[in-house]
Amino acid sequence: MGPRLTVEEKRKRMMEIFHDSQEPFLLKELEKIGPKQKGIVAQTVKDIVQSLVDDGMCHCEKIGTSNYYWAFPSESAIKRQNRLKALEKDVEQMEAKKRELTDNIERAQLGREQTDERTSLNEELAEIETQWNAQQTELQAFKECDPALMKQKRDEAVVARDAANRWTDNIFIMQSWACEKFGMDSAAFGKHFGIPEDMDNV
C-alpha cells in the first residue's frame, strides 16, 4: 500500500486524468479510473471532483439524468493568462497611484523648504504657543470670578435652598400629623427622630 495522498495531491492527479484524456467522464467512471491510474481512493473521488468544480477548475454539466465532468488543458493555460493579465493591470494601477502620490508630496513640499525665514517663523510660532498656554493657565486661576460661573452657582444655590425648604416643610407636616394622630409632644417627636429644636426654613 502506497503513502496516503494529501487532498492537494489528489486534486492534482484528478486534473491529470482530465487533461490526459481530454474527454468528459461520468462520476462512476472517475471512481474506477482514479484508484487504478492515480491511486486515489474511490470513496474520496466524488469529494475531490466536487472541490475542483467549486473552484472552477473542472466543469460539470447535467445531460439527461447524468452529470458529466471535464477539464481541458487549454482552459488552465487561458485562466493563468487571464490571471496574469489581471495582476499586471493591478500592478499598473498601483504604480500609477504611487506616481500620483509622489507628485502630490512634491507639490505639497513646494514653498516649505527649510530657510532662515521659515526657521525664524517656526521659532516665533513656538513662542506664541508657549505664551498662549501660559495665559490659558492664568485664566483658569481666575475662573472662580467668571460672571457666568457665578450666575450658575447662584442659580444652583436657589434650587438647593428651595429643595431644602420643601423637605423641611414635609418634616413639619409629618410632625404635625404624628403628634395629632398619636397625641405626641412635638419636642418628643423631634428628640425621637433626631430633629434639632431650632430647625427652620432657610
Textual characterization of the structure:
The protein is mostly helical. The protein folds into four domains: 7-71, Orthogonal Bundle (Arc Repressor Mutant, subunit A); 74-112; 114-145; 149-192. 72% of the residues lie in helices and 6% in strands. It is built from seven helices and three strands, in the order αβααββαααα. It has a three-stranded antiparallel beta sheet with strand order 1-3-2. Strand 2 and strand 3 form a beta hairpin. The radius of gyration is 45 Å and the shape is elongated. The relative contact order is 0.05. The mean pLDDT is 83.
Short descriptors:
elongated, Arc Repressor Mutant, subunit A, 4 domains, 3 strands
Concise structural overview:
It contains seven helices and three strands. By secondary structure, the protein is mainly alpha-helical. The longest helix has 37 residues, at 73-109.
